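Could you please review the protein record set out just below?
***
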Amino acid sequence: MAGRRSNVTPELALKALQEMNNYREGKVYRRLLAIAKSAEFKVGDVAKFLGFSRSNVSLWIKKFSEGGVENLKDRPKGHYQSKLNEFHKQQISQWLVSQKDADGVSVHWTVKKLCVEIKRVFGISITHTPLRLHLHKMGFVQKVPRPAHIKADKKKQDEFQKK
């Protein structure tokens, strides 16, 4: 059974070869090479020889024929936008420094309590890890108390320190 014919015309292959002069190495160069060689050989054979999947080579052919070399370039991936803006960060910073919540009540802050307070005051639902990362970028560090043994006797420790 014969392999699937590629839809690479000689004009498209020539265009790919011309574009290859602008890119001497990298992903775009290898993709253009795969497109150009698909005019001479079967897509599956080209893909196998160059180490790509046949479906990727077919996709690159389609993208190149539709939009040229710009469609072969990788797009920036981006990140989720932060839920907290600068105003929120300033308010949170004031709460942490003053050790008081939005109502002025004294609080020993934990990240969990801070998540609840942000939800209550700003209506923003943020989880533990992103909030902790925000706090770290703002210059705050979580204080962890020194571990104490369960059977430690506080009176004996105080007497030992006095001597």
